[in-house]
Structure formats: structure tokens, C-alpha cells
Amino acid sequence: EPEVTQTPSHQVTQMGQEVILRCVPISNHLYFYWYRQILGQKVEFLVSFYNNEISEKSEIFDDQFSVERPDGSNFTLKIRSTKLEDSAMYFCASRGRTISNQPQHFGDGTRLSIL
Amino acid sequence: QKEVEQNSGPLSVPEGAIASLNCTYSDRGSQSFFWYRQYSGKSPELIMSIYSNGDKEDGRFTAQLNKASQYVSLLIRDSQPSDSATYLCAVNPSRDSWGKFQFGAGTQVVVTP
């Protein structure tokens, strides 16, 4: 069964450094998402991406965050200058060709630890 | 602020019994509803989706939706120790959003042998 893959599984970074989280969505999916989950808290929406542009973003997704689909397969989340509070699990998800009534398929996540 | 609410638990269920999980949502225009299972430190895994009022059964799982009451539930029959996890209710809000999910905080289920 096709799946969403994320790399790395764990990233440790010094505060203030840039970090790039990578995702390969399911190949025929068109809608892509990033979520984060701080330890012990709920899964929070960050951003949705369709047709090579951001379609929606949350208030969490400030100027320090950016997303890109550089080559038609990878979908990346960049955090420009990491803060301690960015420590969380980051999940990439993708969704099929029609927007409504479709579940999102999640990758295994990247655990980001900011020191 | 549109919200999805779940009882946090833990919900302790004897092996073989029925676990009943509840979820309420505030956006009356919500279109579709999903239950995900999340083991500790892992990613959400889809269990069920439901779009219309009523019941939907899939194996040991039954989802129930009541849009008038803005309520969705999940029943797990013949609970097994492997069902011990956190169950997340996810809601696709109003039709004009780009399909983002709003998640509840999850209900932790503990199935005791």
C-alpha cells in the first residue's frame, strides 16, 4: 500500500539554526499538509499546499516557516531560525484527488528537538 | 474558534468489552469526520471515516454521526489489549476550507486483560 515517507525520523538542532523536514507524499495525491504535535498536546494544523502554492495556513505558521515542493515528489517544511518551542513531532500528510470526503494519510513523523 | 472536543480519559476497558468514545464539534458546517488511532510516539493511523448521519460499521469498529447534535462517536467491540492507544477525532470543517483537519486532544483507551 502506498505510504507517506518522512525524513529524518529525528532531528536535533541548536536554537537559531535552520532545519528542513522532508516528506514524500503518496504519488497520485494533490493536497499536502504539515501538522505538528507538541508532546502531550493535540495535533495542530500548520499549512496546506495545493497546485504549488499555500492554500491555507494557521497562525502558528509565521514568517519563520516555509514550504516547498521543489521537484514534484518531495514536500519540505523549513524553519528558518528555530526556537525551543518548535520542539515537537512534525507530521506530513497527503490527500487524494478530490478534496471532500477524503482521509488524510500521515507519515511516521519527524521528531524535532531544539537544544 | 472552531473546536473539536473529546474526553481525555484514560478510558479503562476490560478485554472483550465495548469501548465507547465521544467527540463533539463546534462548526455546524463540518462535512466529514474521521477517527484515527495513535500509539505513543507514533503517527495517526486512520480507522474510520463517516460523512452521513447514522452508523457505519467496519469490523469491530462502529462510527456514529449526528450532525444535528454535532456529535460523532466510535464504538470498539470485543476490545483487545492491542486497542490500547489514543483515539483522535478529526473533523474536516466547512466546505470552503482546503481540507485541513481539526483534531481533538484524543481519548486514551487502556484495555486491561
Sheet with the most strands of chain B?
6 strands, mixed
| Cα Rg of chain A | 13 Å
Per DSSP E runs of 2 or more residues, the count of β-strands of chain A stands at 11
Order of helices and strands of chain A: EEEEEEEEEEE
User: What characteristic shape of chain A results from the CA principal axes?
Assistant: globular
Description:
The complex is a heterodimer of chains A (115) and B (113). Chain A is an all-beta fold and 115 residues long. Chain A has no helices and eleven strands. Chain A has strands at 5-7, 10-13, 19-24, 31-37, 44-50, 53-57, 65-68, 75-79, 88-95, 105-106, 110-114. Chain A starts with a strand and ends with a strand. The model of chain A has no long low-confidence stretch (mean pLDDT 93). Chain B is mainly beta. Chain B has strands at 4-6, 11-14, 19-25, 32-38, 45-50, 54-58, 61-66, 71-76, 85-92, 102-103, 107-112. In chain B, strands 2, 4, 5, 9, 10 and 11 form a six-stranded mixed sheet that branches. A five-stranded antiparallel sheet of chain B has the order 1-3-8-7-6, with no helix packed on it. Chain B is globular and about 45 Å long. The relative contact order of chain B is 0.35.
Record the SSE blueprint:
The complex is a heterodimer of chains A (115) and B (113).
Chain A: E1 5-7, E2 10-13, E3 19-24, E4 31-37, E5 44-50, E6 53-57, E7 65-68, E8 75-79, E9 88-95, E10 105-106, E11 110-114
Parallel strand pairs in A: 2-11
Antiparallel strand pairs in A: 1-3, 3-8, 4-5, 4-9, 5-6, 7-8, 9-10, 9-11
Chain B: E1 4-6, E2 11-14, E3 19-25, E4 32-38, E5 45-50, E6 54-58, E7 61-66, E8 71-76, E9 85-92, E10 102-103, E11 107-112
Parallel strand pairs in B: 2-11
Antiparallel strand pairs in B: 1-3, 3-8, 4-5, 4-9, 6-7, 7-8, 9-10, 9-11
Question: Tags for this entry?
Answer:
heterodimer, A: 115 residues, mainly beta, 7-stranded mixed beta sheet, 4-stranded antiparallel beta sheet, 11 strands, 0% helix, globular, B: 113 residues, 5-stranded antiparallel beta sheet, 53% strand
